Amino acid sequence: xxxxxxxxxxxxxxxxxxxxxxxxxxxxxxxxxxxxxxxxxxxxxxxxxxxxxxxxxxxxxxxxxxxxxxxxxxxxxxxxxxxxxxxxxxxxxxxxxxxxxxxxxxxxxxxxxxxxxxxxxxxxxxxxxxxxxxxxxxxxxxxxxxxxxxxxxxxxxxxxxxxxxxxxxxxxxxxxxxxxxxxxxxxxxxxxxxxxxxxxxxxxxxxxxxxxxxxxxxxxxxxxxxxxxxxxxxxxxxxxxxxxxxxxxxxxxxxxxxxxxxxxxxxxxxxxxxxxxxxxxxxxxxxxxxxxxxxxxxxxxxxxxxxxxxxxxxxxxxxxxxxxxxxxxxxxxxxxxxxxxxxxxxxxxxxxxxxxxxxxxxxxxxxxxxxxxxxxxxxxxxxxx
Length: 385
Description:
- The structure is a single chain.
- The protein has 385 residues and is α/β, with parallel strands linked by helices.
- Helix content is 39%, strand content 15%.
- It has helices at 12-25, 44-55, 68-82, 98-108, 123-132, 151-156, 180-190, 254-264, 270-281, 285-306, 333-344, 370-384, and strands at 31-32, 91-94, 114-119, 135-140, 162-168, 197-201, 227-232, 245-248, 312-313, 321-325, 346-347, 349-350, 361-365.
- The strands form 3 sheets. It has a 7-stranded mixed sheet with strand order 2-8-7-6-5-3-4, sandwiched between helices. It has a 4-stranded antiparallel sheet with strand order 9-10-13-12. Strands 1-11 form a two-stranded parallel ribbon.
- Helix 7 links the parallel strand 5 (162-168) and strand 6.
- Helix 4 packs parallel to helix 5 (123-132).
- The chain is globular and about 60 Å long.
- The model has no long low-confidence stretch (mean pLDDT 96).
């Protein structure tokens, strides 16, 4: 095999999910707080739209960038929620959120190049950067900054070899949210680094709390000629299994992105695209209900974690993850993940699965029923005591 395959990592949440499922099949009672997926069903009107699309004959290829009507729905949603008008021809629908990051990192990653990425962060960033032969440059997200970032520190890490900067807000695994002043400072500073493209991963854009509005780098016109924005349906509409996302690309990049799409997966599923348009144009009550439920669960899990001996947890501002500090227990992240699964029947993800700066932390998903969160906290308390 090509040497690059040895540099390709994985997403540990799926490995933990597989182990948890194997233990469950063997008769163990496992509470899964590992996988990052809403536990709500896809809203009925979206399912109905997908079923109707299949019945109406949406069985074939679509244009590589996606059906025009669906891209227009994305354009209108972006205008409404981000206050930005984008050209429909710069929108490309893809099967899930990952293809947009995969394509962006492929475009800019090669030996000798540097790509900056959040750490702790979504593990596919570092994996794909290493795969291309580029040098991964971690941007440390610190607990004492609520896992936001210091724009000046980020800008100070840019070199003449930096090709791409990845920004993720709200963030996986920390739940950190970057506020508008910090994004404004970053955008202003990037004027001095015109050789750097930006990938803004905003897949959790609708999952924010405390009345805070999502701040998007797309709202900074000075970056539009080098900004790639990633979003999709998985988290917002509980459509993880449908596999539908989108990227908004600079005009200068979209043809290259389209060629990568054609060379890899041709297009997103036709019927799923139609369902995606129904999600954006239809009632949003289910989204609001889901986010309100997550907000209540957030309080429940953070309070529970802070009650445990040796554990502290800051309040996440978005997404549906608690990133708990376990350094006070004296147990490392990987060992704690293993012991919680095998001794307590609680599946969580070690912070080190999200990068070296994740040591001393655990990621727990609170996209789970409140009673399961409470049971998990009780089991963790028994183990730690």
